[in-house]
Design brief:
The chain is α/β, with parallel strands linked by helices and 280 residues long. It has eleven helices and ten strands. A hairpin with a 2-residue loop joins strand 1 and strand 2. Its EC number is 4.2.1.17. It holds the Pfam family ECH_1. Keywords: Lyase.
C-alpha cells in the first residue's frame, strides 16, 4: 500500500509514524485510518520491517503545525449516512485496538491539538508525551456527536468515570499541564524536538529489555484493564506462565546469577541500554 497521508521512518530500530495532512490539521479521514490500519496490521504479523520483527518501539505523531491530530475529518462525516458513520467508527475503533495489540510499545508524541479522534488515538497508545502548547479534549457533543473511536471506554479507565463524564459531556479542552495532572500524558516538554528526543530515549531504554517480556507485559496490562481483580490476575498469570516458555527467561535469569549483562534472543536493538539488576 502506498501511503499518501502517513510518513513512516525508521531510525535505529524505532519507527516514527507521522500523520501528514497539514492542510487539514492532520484530521483522521477514511484514508488516514485505512493507512494506519494497514501499517499496524503489518506490525502485528511481524512484517513491518526487514527480518520480520516488530519495531523496538513506535512513535505516533502529527506533521508539524497547530495540531497533533485535530480530530476526525468533519467534512467527511457531515456527508455520511448512519451506515457509513458506523463503518467509519468501526474503522477508527479497529485502529485503536491495533495500537493496543501490536507487540511493541507505542508512544504518542503530541504537539498541538489532540481533540476528538486525535485524543482517542492518544488514549490507545501505551503512554503519551506532550509539548506545553498541546490541548486535549473530547468535544464531539459540540457537533451533535459522541466519541466513536473508544473515548467513552478508555478515557474513564484512565481518569476515572466522573472526570471522563465531565470532559465528554461539556466537551471542554484540557491544556497540557492539566492533562498531565489527570494522567492523560506522562510528561510535558517545552518544545517538539525535546519531546521527540525524550520519546526516542525511553523507547531505546525499553528496547534494552526482553522484547518477549515487554510484549507479554503489554498484553497483560491491556488485558487486565477493566476486569475484576480476580479476572485480572488470571490474565497476568497466563502471561507469567508464557514467559517461562521463552528463551529470554532462561537467558535473563542465567545472566543475573552469573552477574553479567543478558543477551536476550528477542532483543530488537543490539546497542540498547539496560538497567543492571546486579552490583559488584
Amino acid at each position: 500500500m502506498d501511503y499518501s497521508t502517513l510518513l513512516v521512518e525508521e531510525e535505529a530500530g524505532i519507527t516514527t509514524v507521522t500523520v501528514s495532512r497539514p492542510s487539514a490539521r492532520n484530521a483522521l479521514s477514511v484514508r488516514v485510518l485505512a493507512e494506519l490500519d494497514h501499517f499496524l496490521s503489518g506490525v502485528l504479523v511481524g512484517g513491518a520491517r526487514p527480518g520480520g520483527r516488530a519495531p523496538a518501539g513506535i512513535m505516533l505523531t502529527g506533521a508539524p503545525g497547530p495540531a497533533f491530530i485535530a480530530g476526525a475529518d468533519i467534512r467527511e462525516m457531515a456527508a455520511m449516512t448512519p451506515a457509513e458513520g458506523e463503518r467509519f467508527g468501526r474503522l477508527g475503533q479497529r485502529v485503536t485496538l491495533l495500537l493496543e495489540e501490536v507487540p511493541c510499545p507505542v508512544v504518542a508524541c503530541v504537539d498541538g491539538y489532540a481533540l476528538g479522534g486525535g485524543c482517542e488515538m492518544v488514549l490507545a497508545c501505551d503512554f503519551a508525551y506532550a509539548t506545553r502548547r498541546s490541548v486535549f479534549g473530547q468535544p464531539e457533543v459540540l457537533l451533535g456527536l459522541v466519541p466513536g473511536f473508544g473515548g467513552c471506554v478508555r478515557l474513564q479507565r484512565l481518569v476515572g468515570p466522573a472526570v471522563a463524564r465531565e470532559l465528554i459531556y461539556t466537551g471542554r479542552h484540557v491544556d497540557a499541564l492539566e492533562a498531565q495532572r489527570l494522567g492523560l500524558v506522562n510528561a510535558v516538554f517545552d518544545g517538539r524536538d525535546e519531546m521527540l528526543t525524550a520519546a526516542r530515549e525511553v523507547l531505546g531504554r525499553i528496547a534494552g529489555n526482553s522484547a518477549t517480556a515487554v510484549s507479554l507485559a503489554k498484553a497483560a496490562v491491556n488485558g487486565a484493564g477493566g476486569r475484576t481483580v480476580e479476572a485480572g490476575l488470571a490474565v497476568e498469570l497466563d502471561a507469567f506462565r508464557e514467559a517461562f516458555t521463552a528463551d529470554d527467561m532462561r537467558e535473563g535469569t542465567g545472566a543475573f546469577l552469573a552477574k553479567r549483562a543478558p543477551a536476550f534472543p528477542s532483543r530488537t536493538l543490539s546497542g540498547a541500554t539496560r538497567e543492571p539488576l546486579f552490583h559488584d
